[in-house]
Amino acid sequence: MNKNIKLEVRNITKIFGKDPQKVISLLNKGLSKNEIFEKTKQTIGLNNVNFEVYDGEIFVIMGLSGSGKSTLLRCLNRLIEPTGGDILIDGKNITDMDPQELRSARRNKIGMVFQNFALLPHRSVLDNVAYGLEIQGIPKEERYSQALEAIETVGLKGHEHSRITQLSGGMKQRVGLARALANDPDILLMDEAFSALDPLIRGDMQDELLALEDRVQKTIIFVSHDLDEALKIGDRIALMKDGEVVQIGTPEEILTEPADSYVSKFVAGVDRSKILVAESVMKRPEPLVPINSGPRVAIQLMKDHGISSIYVVEGKNRRLKGILMIGDALEALKTGKSLEAVMIPDIPRVAPDLPLNEVIPLIAESQYPLAVVNDSGKLLGIIVRGSVLGALAISGEIGQDEIPDGKASEERDSGENIPEEKPPEKMVLIGKNEGEAGPPPAGSGSPGSIINNGIDSGPVPVEAEAKNEAPAKAPARSDAMPGPEVKTC
Amino acid sequence: MLIPRLPIGDTVEFAVDWIEGNFGTFLDLTSDKLDFLISGLKDALLFLPPELFILGISLFAYFAGKRNIKLAAGTAFGFFLIHNMGLWVLSIETLALVLSSALLTLLIGIPVGILSAKNDVLYHVVKPSLDLMQTMPSFVYLIPALIFFGLGNVPGMIATVVFAMPPAIRLTNLGIKQVPKELIEVADAFGSTGWQKLAKVELPVALPTIMAGVNQCIMLSLSMVVIAAMIGARGLGYQVLFGIQRVDISMGFEAGLAIVIIAVVLDRITQKLSPR
Ligand SMILES: Nc1ncnc2c1ncn2[C@@H]1O[C@H](COP(=O)(O)OP(=O)(O)OP(=O)(O)O)[C@@H](O)[C@H]1O
Ligand SMILES: [Mg+2]
């Protein structure tokens, strides 16, 4: 990467309160954020922040809640007015601009994507995306053609006339992204843009952002509180604490040379809890059949996807009701029973934050894939043996010294349960973020999601083999459906 | 330690007299303009033969309700009934009075609502005034209206405007204040001017709430017709008063029924006009 400086932040300070000068003088005396808040009731949003962002890189701002990430990001386009300091974009000082110049910079240079999508509810997808062009007075035809291009870029072609309320979360955020891209800005500001999405969709969106970045070469400043996300998409990461930047570096540097104990705690803490939980190894639960549909629908879905069992859910919230076997479905078709009557309601469920080492014994015992459900019973994903193996393979090196002894052996035991050579511990993650220990979040089963990080596509064959073993014991979801039976329906 | 009685009532009376004395010509001019508005609207509506008017308003209801046959049929039936009771002209007079009052109310109320949502100082002035307007018995402001504008439709209209103003201002104010912060940020982040932000983000997002205010305002205007008739406003309200004076149940009931029909039709139509 050529290291042209695109954006430079110098000594940015933001005080929320009536008398910022007093706070600054207290700061100079060396008081902490909390002490100053107790004394003055004023909050330090940012304290003397400095960094540079290079042309074409993804710069991630990371930190715990309240550390000042959003404040910093909003200072960059002056949605929040900094108390002091300079922000230079292509050498021009944003903080000196009059309202007219600032508007023009916002229209042409800096795009923004919001955490909760922030789409205009009264407008169609197309008119949302065209908003930035519309306010510049660009004639209808031209702005629509540019907007359509942006809609295509984010993969929403064909949805341009949909209403916002008809879209899923992932689609909404694509619209948000398209809206920012339509203006063709140099810099994209993204405030926790993927945090409101389901984990699987979030993974997909991260992959697509990386793919997009390869194509369009924008400078992206991305706020996140998720280390996995930061490691995955960041070229460089700035770690914030209490309104200050504690470390800036590549993902490797952050992982291997933490600047202080705060950073190392942050890295260690997030690593352990994030990587090895049920949620991070689950696959997309597709297809699903609504409980009130007839057996014919279920059979057709299984046929289309080449599977012999299917999850039954209820309502828009995907409440898990049970699993339906192809044999039972055919039976129901003959006897005219409902799905509810023939499905198996009693299937193993796990919470999304269940540690992986507790997932392993469950999946070893279970006849079916494990269903990952949240508190309200919504089906978030499923775990098949293959994906657990895949995750273990990837986190092999790190996983072993992280998991306490007893559990590590449990893990190995269950590995042996599967009559496979071995969990392929030798497979190591190679790629842009060498330190990354996370499994590919979008489900290790789908090769597409693995590509971007250059991860060796190791998990796939493992899963394939595990699959072949499965029918002997249980009707795994992913095995092919016997042909002749299908023809009877 | 007796506190002398404060001359509140006398002060108000003095102020009213003073205004009448110093702004008399201005008030007369305003009165003429408003009267022109009401009678102009009335003449325009009466210009159509009743059958055509019924057809027109039913079609309007049909399309306003997004092809709602029931609403259109109900509207047609209601206005047919009014015609049948021989209350056509009186009803149109009332309709003209109510619609002009509502129009004037909204012309003042919506901008004040928007401004007070953006300006805290103004809000702190407006809010207590609205409380006063809403709780003061409506008969009370018949008196100054009468002094300023004499007998007739105009003082009725002014009293109605005062009575119907609070919900228009309040709901507009609420609607604008309720626009999510992130959407305001969107407008700013993409480089909107203040007017663009208002026209393309704030007003459309606040529209359902503002339309609820419009609906309230029309309903309250209708509920004032009998009171306004006490200071000489024409139409159905006057007919009701007449019925009371003569203890004529039939006359009073029919006029009252006509008011109800107009209220229900206007209510449904304005509700349907609101998005979502
Ligand atoms: N308008 C405001 N007035 C006063 N204090 C504020 C304001 N906005 C933010 N703060 C304070 O500034 C600090 C930083 O807030 P900020 O929203 O930037 O945090 P964040 O890192 O984005 O957190 P999160 O992950 O929760 O979004 C917090 O202590 C917050 O309470
Ligand atoms: Mg934030």
Q: Catalogue the ligands.
A: adenosine-5'-triphosphate, magnesium ion
Tell me the count of domains of chain A: 2
Label the overall shape of chain A: globular
Gross geometry of chain B: flat
The pLDDT mean of chain B sits at 93
Just name the CATH architecture of the largest domain in chain A.
3-Layer(aba) Sandwich
Biggest interface and residues each: A-B, 28 and 18 residues
Mean pLDDT of chain A: 78
Taken in chain order, the helices and strands of chain B follow as HHHHHHHHHHHH
Question: What would CATH call the architecture of chain B?
Answer: Orthogonal Bundle
Description:
The complex is a heterodimer of chains A (489) and B (276). With 489 residues, chain A is of the alpha/beta class. Chain A has 21 helices and 16 strands. Chain A has 2 domains: 5-109 and 185-270, P-loop containing nucleotide triphosphate hydrolases (Rossmann fold, 3-Layer(aba) Sandwich), CATH 3.40.50; 279-467, Roll (CBS-domain), CATH 3.10.580.10. Chain A has a 6-stranded mixed β-sheet, sandwiched between helices. In chain A, strand 15 and strand 16 form a beta hairpin. In chain A, helix 17 (356-365) runs parallel beside helix 19. In chain A, 42% of the residues are buried. Residues 270-275 and 396-489 of chain A have low confidence and may be disordered. Chain B is mainly α. Chain B has one domain (10-47, 85-273): MetI-like (MetI-like fold). Chain B is 83% helix and 0% strand. Chain B contains 12 helices and no strands. Chain B has helices spanning 8-47, 50-64, 69-84, 88-118, 120-135, 142-149, 153-177, 181-189, 194-223, 225-229, 236-245, 249-273. The chains are: A alpha/beta (489), B mainly alpha (276). Chain A binds chain B through residues 74, 77, 79, 102-107, 110-112, 114-116, 118, 120-123, 131-132, 134-136, 179, 183, 189, and chain B through 180, 182-183, 185-186, 188-193, 196, 200-201, 204-205, 207, 275. The structure holds adenosine-5'-triphosphate and magnesium ion. Magnesium ion (MG) binds next to helix 3 of chain A.
